[in-house]
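Question (not urgent): is this output format expected?
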Amino acid sequence: MSGHKLLRRFLLGAVLLFFYFPILYMLVFSFNGSRSLTSFDGFSLQWYDKMFHDPNMLEAIYYTLITAVVATVISTAVGTITAIGLSKSRRIVREVVSQVNNLPIMNPEIVTAVGLMLFYVSLRIEKGFFTMLLAHIAFCIPYVILSVMPKLRSLDDNLADAAMDLGATPWQAMVKVILPQIMPGIISGALIAFTMSFDDFTISYFVTGNGVKNISTLVWTMSKRINPSINALSTIIVLMITITLLLVNLLPIIKEKTKTKTGQVWKHTTSIVALCFALLIGGGLYWLKSGTGNHMSSADAIARFGSDTLKVYNVGEYIDPQINTAFEERYGVKIIYDTFDSNELMYTKLQGGERYDILVPSDYMIERLLKEDFLQPLNHDQLPNLSYLTEELNSLSYDPDHTYSVPYFWGTVGIVYNKNNVDIEDLQKEGYNIFRNQKYKGRIYMYDSERDSFMMALKALGYSMNTDDEKQLYEAYEWLKKIVTTMKPEIVTDEVIDAMANGNKDMALVYSGDATYILSENEDMGYYMPSEGTNLWSDAMVIPKNAANPKLANEYINFILEYENSMRNTEYVGYTSTNGEVLEECSGEGGIYADNEAYLPRSGYEKDEIFHYNDKSRKLISELWTKVKIAK
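Got this back:
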């Protein structure tokens, strides 16, 4: 074999490995015995079991398949008919419509998403499955038209006329003559439409609501915490696609090798297989819908609260799912549970007119919502469990009397470090400046968060993290810029959790709840809060002013504060409980977090601060953080 052939095969193998190694990696770690995404700790099917017992995942699969199938059928039909009509139209009409058809394809998805969201809001259409389906149909149709038009252009213009001259009706001419000729284009358009619908995130995120999520939006909101069930779900999708491609490619080859007489047998066999597949999917979806609709409307709940439905908007992976189930069973109600991945995206949805009964934003966002009159006062008569709040949370500056908010989780931001490689004396002496110590060059993570990074820089310089002094902010910018240009840091987001748990680097700035998980997974890791001060944050439950069911919302807040539910929540999520009894039990002798130095926040330290909302500094910090990352 010549050297050129060997080189070509090597390059081909390298390209295939480049494309398929991530998929193989994901497949292997879907069978991992631990939560780690980098260290394989033995074969296990636990994540598949968890996936099939997670109602949120099953419901997301249901809505993804239904939306993709219906959107594909409708968009293919509409797109094909439109393309045929355009092919017979005048040139000026055809060119204008073609240009308009290209706009959604060339337009950034975020623009289309926001435009559709505002369109629904202007018409006062409640967002949910119907609005998501309409959006998917709308953005799939242009792709179908684009696929069918080239096939139509290749046809003889007189083909339909010839068919009608031979006695065919216009409908017969289209169905029996035109459609068979352009079928490859129709199939291609349908496949593109299905793929686009199945894969869409950006548009789906902005046009859906009422607890309706597809796979992409669910995975996005679950990515905050390590959840290998995502690997299991992705593996199943990859296997289904692989099997489908094998059948599509192998069946025609096998059919070609058989006798013509057996052609009907193959046709009937294929039909039977397709029918069985449809029945299997249909049966699974029926079971899913019946399984997720166990909690029926309760007349008692309506009589007591005025409603039997509660809409909750919380951060992804930020609650034990059993808590919502327990609330539904106790009060005979249905919870519609939506998730977001950032306070800013939550705020965007609220501005878009989305209505929820419960929100769980962070402290600075609560301050913004109060300034803009988004929230309503709580009914303390319905909140006897407020007395269980730990004392440290009874005088928060943004809402000292809990008039509008009740803390949900709280904690700090600090440095996770490898105790074997980082000298504690360096930490105590340098604080945040240790991230500029050349001894640790190339061994640090920087968290891709403008607020937390500038907090670190401002505190290191001796300033308040809430400053809006431009001179101080530019000093902080230079401080961060020196790190990225001299220390070779890796700028990451939530993958820092698993990376530090596996000891990939020596230091990282992380939230205390994530640090709690890291320390529980790796005994070599420690948590340090610098003497310069840090961000003492809290997320809290609030009720929007436009909430439809405030009475039921107050009952839900009170339910979350109960000892049993607070304990269940902190054990599942890992963040610090706001219930004083639970906090004491978990962090005290014999508690599940007794030896975890990250779990119990530092309180009463004068240099620790709570973030306040400041639009002026927020915009400047955002611009400067972009420059910091570019400087790397």
